Amino acid sequence: MFLTRFQINPARRGARKVLSSPQAMHAAVRAAFAAPEDYEREGTRTLWRLDAPTPATVHLYLLSPGKPDLTHLVEQAGWPTTETWVTRDYDSLLSSLDAGQDWAFRLTANPSHNGRKTADAKETQRFGYLREQEQVAWLANRVARHGFTLITQRDGLPNLRLHHRQTQTFKRGMAQVTLTTVTYDGILQISDANAFRQALTRGIGHAKAYGCGLITLARAG
Predict the structure, then answer these.
(1) Cα 129 versus chain centre, distance
(2) pLDDT at 190
(3) Measured at the alpha carbon of residue 159, what is the angle toward residues 204 and 214, in degrees to the nearest 5?
(4) 182 Ramachandran zone, left/alpha/beta (phi>0; psi -120 to 50)
(5) Residue 115: enclosing H or E segment and its boundaries?
(6) pLDDT band at 81 (very low <50, low <70, confident <90, very high)
(7) How far apart are CA 32 and CA 76, in angstroms?
(8) Most buried residue, 86, 92, 104, 172, by CB count within 10 Å?
(9) Chain center to CA of 187
């Protein structure tokens, strides 16, 4: 597995296009892999996320089975003469993970549930959780199956900060997609290293094609 960071130049027209539509960014990410097995392999898939540490700085993070080639994104939405992208081996981090370790993490996810729009509706559909309390509960209810726990604060609440809570609407072909997303920053402790490695390489929750599900880690300290 490989973790890649690419800095987007938000002043460029091509950047505005991919930043305004998760479908457009998904297509750009998919085009970064000439070989299908570099994009998706058994038990792993490509995950991506946009981070904006400042209003003028936007990073695209990619976790993928093979190394991506982001030349097309550099030409359309980057700095062709000064910046490209950085790709690092991720397997060494995966192999170093063990139960009991604490990590700071970031996750952008699609907290949602299936239901019926009306009581007599025949088909179920997915609805996003909009309230912060529901979004915290959505993650808290999933961490055990993914091999980690959320570290609690002195007040007993999870050590979590939610931000970039938003609902996006964009085109996918002739259809219109509505997507609720939220970014979680927090501290976790690994309880099952194998399950946690699967969560890192497979992602958490729905809408993984649209920038959700990727967990990135930093040393907790």
Answers:
(1) 17
(2) 98
(3) 20
(4) beta
(5) strand 112-115
(6) very high
(7) 13
(8) 104
(9) 17
Q: Which amino acid is at 8?
A: I
102 DSSP β-pair partners = 189
Q: Identify how many contiguous H helices and E strands the chain contains and give both numbers.
A: 7, 13
How wide is the angle at C-alpha 83 spanned by C-alphas 214 and 46, nearest 5°? Answer: 20
Q: Which long-range contacts (CB under 8 A, 24 or more apart) does 22-25 make?
A: 22/168, 22/170, 22/177, 22/179, 22/207, 22/209, 22/210, 22/211, 23/170, 23/171, 23/172, 23/177, 23/210, 24/170, 25/50, 25/60, 25/210, 25/211
The helix (H) or strand (E) run that includes residue 15 is: helix 13-20
Q: What angle separates helix 22-30 from helix 13-20, to the nearest 10 degrees?
A: 110
At 200, list the tokens: 């890192």
Q: What is the pLDDT of residues 157-187, one digit of tens each?
A: 999 999 999 999 998 888 899 999 999 999 9
- pTM score, two decimals? 0.93
Report the C-alpha gap between 111 and 129 in whole angstroms. Answer: 6
199, two tokens: 């969560």
pLDDT of residue 139: 97
| pLDDT exceeds 90 at position 125 | no
CB atoms under 10 Å from CB of 125, counted, come to 10
